[in-house]
Every structure is written in structure tokens, then in C-alpha cells.
Amino acid sequence: MKAIITGGNRGIGLEIAKNLLSRGYEVHVLSRSGISSPPEGIISWTADVSDFEQTIRIVDKIGTPDVLINNAGIMNAKTASDYCSDEILHMLNVNLISAVRLSVRLAEQMANSSGGRIVSMGSIAGEIGHPDIWYGISKAGIMNAMRSLARTYGPRGVVANSVAPGPVETEMMKNIPEDRKTRLKAATISQRFCSAEEVAATVCWLATDAPTFINGEVIDMNNGTNYR
Question: Which CATH number goes with the domain that contains 71?
Fold first, then answer.
């Protein structure tokens, strides 16, 4: 069994990689900086996912995976009016466009073999709006894309889902102002943020043991801050 994880060099992505490794997967991690000392069994590839052609060259070397995890992403502490055109395009390219193009390519390959599973990292920001409007749009888009993939490739054995966490204790949280973090934490049932390990456990369940009837779904992880 083979898994490809984008943005798997730290935080949630690295926890996903370690989780899948413990399940017996051959784990390939794609990241812009690579992993200087990857855990034994994790294969690190240096790739900027915003460069789709570079990413595809590496993925073609790896071969068709059983599991694809779209985890790579960026978030800025900006509002809509703070962005220039290049920054908007970069945000959408990293968080949405490249991930969708990679997913479509590998979904087709999976469908032509024995099927497979794709899990993408969404966000509560894509469901309720976000001060960083382009981040929210990118996450809403990736979650919708997984639903589209499920409808297109599900009959051919491909399962595609998303996980939509609220704030998670990762390096990315440094981009959020302290007063806003305090308000966000106070809104949760447990008065804390989600851990990277908790998100990874959910992602890996969807990627492995979850019933195949769960397809095209979004699994919320926001501890009561957004009931749907």
C-alpha cells in the first residue's frame, strides 16, 4: 500500500505520515523544504506544490498511490483588501488549484486500477466565512472539489472526502492575532484548540478504515463552534 502526502514535513502532515506508516503504508511526503531527518520508513521528496509540473514529475516517479492526502496549504493574517493580485493567485494555486489538478490526475489513475482514497484538508473557514477571504474561498473550493470527484469517480472505486477543522495547534496558528485566538478558544466546548494528532487520526480513518459509503463528505472538527 502506497500513500502520498503533500505538505507532510511538519504539523498535521507529518502526524498523518507517521500514522499511515504505522498502518503499514509506504509513505511519500512532498514538501517545499523536505524533511531533514525523516522518520524511518518515510520517503521525503522536495517539491513546491504550487509548481504543478514539478509536482507531477515527482508523483509519476512514485507511481499511482492507494491514498492521496492533500494537506499542503498556506494562510495569511490578511483581510480581503490587503491582497494584491499575485498574492491572491498564489493562495488559490497552493490551496486549491494544484491540489485539485493533482487529485483529478490521480483519481483517474486510481479508477483505472483498483480504486483508492483521497482526503483533502478543508477548514471551518470554508463553511462560515473568514477574515482572510481568499483562504476561506480556497478551503470552500477544495471541499466542493472532493464532492465533485466522489460523484465522478466514486462508481469506479475512488473515495474522496474532506476534513474541516477549526483552529489547530500548529505553526500556522502564529499568523492569528492573540485576541482572536482567545475568542476562538472560548467558543469551543473543551476550551482548547484541536491537536495535530486528532486531525491526523481523523484523516487517516477516512483514508483507510472508514466505510466507503462515506464519500464526498466533509467531516467537521470544530468542537461545537459550528453546528450544521
Answer: 3.40.50.720
Between 60 and 190, where is the model more confident? 60
- Going from the C-alpha of 92 to that of each of 13, 137, 178, 183, the distances in angstroms are 19, 8, 26, 27
Report the C-alpha gap between 32 and 72 in whole angstroms. 9
Is 29 within a domain?
Answer: yes
- Which residue is listed with cell 517539491? 47
Q: Indicate if 135 belongs to the active site.
A: yes
Active site residue: 25, 135, 153, 227, which one?
A: 135
Q: Please name which of 177, 6, 180, 207 lies closest in space to residue 97, comparing C-alpha atoms.
A: 6
Residue whose C-alpha is closest to residue 108's, from 162, 62, 51, 160: 160
Is pLDDT above 90 for 227? no
Question: Which structural domain, as residue segments, surrounds residue 26?
Answer: 2-221
Residue 173, pLDDT > 80, answer: no
